[in-house]
Amino acid sequence: MARVEIRGISKLFGEVRAVDHVDLETAEGEFLVLLGPSGCGKTTLLRMIAGIEEPTGGDILIEEQVVTHLPPRMRNIAMVFQSYALYPHMTVYRNIAFPLRTRGVDKGTIREKVEWAAGMFGIERLLDRKPRELSGGERQRVALARAMVREPSVFLLDEPLSNLDAILRASAREELRQFQKRVGVTTIYVTHDQVEAMGLGDRIVVMSKGSIRQVGTPMEIYHWPADTFVATFLGSPPMNLLGEDDILTGFRPETFLPAELMTGDGDVVTYPFEVTWMEYLGAERLVYGNVGEKSHARHVVSRLPGSVSLPIETGRTYPFAVSRRDFRFFDRENGLRTDRSPA
Amino acid sequence: MRMNGKAGIAEPGPKPGIQDHSGQLALFMIAPAILYIAALIGFSFVMAILYSLSDVTTGDPTLRIVGLQNFSAILDNSVFRLALKNTFFFAFSSQILVIILSRIVATALMKEFRGKWLARFLIMLPWTAPISLGTIGWLWMLDSIFSPFDWILRYVGLLGSPGALLGPMQNLYWLGVPGLAMASVIMVHVWRLLPLATVIQLAGLSSIPRDLLEAAEVDGASPWRRTLEITIPLTLPIISIAFLFGLVFTFTDMTVVYVMTRGGPVHSTQVLSTWTFFKGIEGGDLAQGAAISLFLFPVLAGIAILMLRMVRKSEVV
């Protein structure tokens, strides 16, 4: 168990600032998710923590010890790669044993530990197979077992679920979370998938263009986004933003509902909503359309739960409303959330 | 076109040609290769077998079968036995050197450094020149009297003065002393096959996913362990192919030895390919020449089969 501390870390690839002066600190045993679109620097940050990428500036501390320029093998970290990076010429047993052999652990202990790690991920019966004889889900478990076998102080994962199909991904997510809670190892997890981030993270770090935009619990990030980037990157469909002068008004699609459903809700703002397009998704309906006349950004989305069976047709206008407490305001200039509401 | 009354029957399109019959087409496409192999390899191979069992010479080309007489005759010849030994020594030692050196060169060329293109160009250069010309160049470089290597050795004081490390004589006589002649021939042959082996090794090295080496690094493996346990095992099939190819090539090629030493001094660099030439073509004994050239056929066929297996194995990984 260990804390990871990142102090003003930067990475330049030629002229490109992949990571730009990032400060970050994990709590002990925390599950921290780095979330952002591709190219935002999240993987580069993870690779610098692992030690396979050398930072251009700044420091990395693991267990209060500066490791910035130490090679990976001197950091006691484990990493699971997106491709799993299993050694194709070794059996599953030899794959899992590899990190122990590099440390000169004796044969008996290796056998014991490999069996323990394999048991933890339910892959005991695969120990004699080669990676190419395994399914995607099995490979992922072998990669996890190989990472965990030496009980690292920090566990790094680079999009480990992106190569699994949708059904497997959901169950793998659940298993990963339970396993992490049980072992209690500090975990840093990189993903571009907001569902994974929300479901797994104790805290989420939202990154864009090499910098951190917000750090917070899934609840904070979703309900109180720090800026318009976070507001529109999380949630599908993203938060609606209405431009009114220098302040933008934001509200989540699921808070934008037909006015007749909002009668008990005291303080609401009602808009005439001209429906232009509708998607029926089973559990919910997405209604696209325009509100207001004078504002600049008029396009908004409403997300109606499947239980709302009000008939809605495209081309017609309905009164839709938002509860005032669901409004979030952002400064148009810098995109940051603000307490000022439009006049 | 207008549909006529018979609904469901399509208008006849263009007539099917040979391109529509995959069987005929395959035969047509493969025929040149078969003709080529049959005429240029199959025919001469059959002739070689026939000759080796006969007593044909350049002076008397009538074919009389005499059985295995030629084989026992060549085995009785001490030059043949020496050439056989030399062939194996020449082939294995040059190929072991080629594999080790090409590995080092390929590893260096995988890295980024200034002037990399120049280094790559220079390493590939021997492959672009006709081998006989390149070898003649080496012949001059290793000349008994004017060898620049001897100049350098004399200049740094390793040769040509009383008490010098390599002796007091003015020259080493690279191609005139048995051991040194063999070493020279091996060196030139290594120089010549290095480019190809380097290209093969480069292909092998760049086929290893970066992830794998990074994972090994994170798993605590030192550079040595990464080389021994990841890189070498993963490129072993392709290294083996490079090795076996070089081996077969060396067993059957005579250019370097023929141009540099003609098998001398006193047969110390004589190999089977040159001995075949001297016996069969220059000496006119076609039957014995054929027998010598066929002597290693079983070995070479075995290596070729092994090589094909390796190719298949390297595809699986």
Spatial sequence of strands, sheet with the most strands of chain A: 6-7-8-3-9-10
| Count of helical stretches of chain A | 8
How many DSSP E strands of chain B? 0
Estimated helix fraction of chain A: 10-25%
* Low-confidence runs of at least 5 consecutive residues of chain B: 1-7
Largest interface: chains, residues each? A-B, 23 and 19 residues
**Spatial extent as radius of gyration of chain A:** 24 Å
- Portion in helices of chain B: 55-70%
Secondary structure: elements and pairs:
The complex is a heterodimer of chains A (343) and B (317).
Chain A: E1 4-13, E2 16-25, E3 31-35, H1 42-50, E4 57-62, E5 65-66, E6 77-80, H2 92-101, H3 107-120, H4 136-148, E7 154-158, H5 166-183, E8 186-191, H6 194-200, E9 203-208, E10 211-216, H7 218-223, H8 228-233, E11 240-244, E12 247-251, E13 257-258, E14 268-280, E15 284-291, E16 299-305, E17 317-323, E18 328-331, E19 337-338
Parallel strand pairs in A: 3-8, 3-9, 6-7, 7-8
Antiparallel strand pairs in A: 1-2, 1-4, 4-5, 9-10, 11-12, 12-18, 13-17, 14-15, 14-17, 15-16, 18-19
Helix pairs in contact in A: 2-3, 2-4, 3-4
Chain B: H1 22-52, H2 69-76, H3 78-110, H4 116-128, H5 131-141, H6 148-155, H7 178-206, H8 210-218, H9 223-252, H10 255-260, H11 272-282, H12 286-295, H13 297-316
Helix pairs in contact in B: 1-12, 2-12, 3-7, 3-9, 4-7, 7-9, 8-9, 9-13, 11-12
Please describe what this structure looks like.
The complex is a heterodimer of chains A (343) and B (317). Chain A is an alpha+beta fold and 343 residues long. Chain A has helices at 42-50, 92-101, 107-120, 136-148, 166-183, 194-200, 218-223, 228-233, and strands spanning 4-13, 16-25, 31-35, 57-62, 65-66, 77-80, 154-158, 186-191, 203-208, 211-216, 240-244, 247-251, 257-258, 268-280, 284-291, 299-305, 317-323, 328-331, 337-338. In chain A, strand 14 and strand 15 (284-291) form a beta hairpin. The model of chain A has no long low-confidence stretch (mean pLDDT 89). Chain B is mostly helical and 317 residues long. Chain B has a single domain (77-316), classed as MetI-like fold (Orthogonal Bundle). Helices cover 69% and strands 0% of the residues of chain B. Chain B is built from 13 helices and no strands. In chain B, helix 3 packs antiparallel against helix 9 (223-252), helix 8 crosses helix 9 and helix 9 (223-252) runs antiparallel to helix 13 (297-316). The longest helix of chain B is centred in the N-terminal third of the chain and has 33 residues, at 78-110. The radius of gyration of chain B is 27 Å and the shape is flat. Residues 1-7 of chain B have low confidence and may be disordered. Classes of the chains: A alpha+beta (343), B mainly alpha (317). The interface between A and B is medium-sized, with 23 and 19 residues.
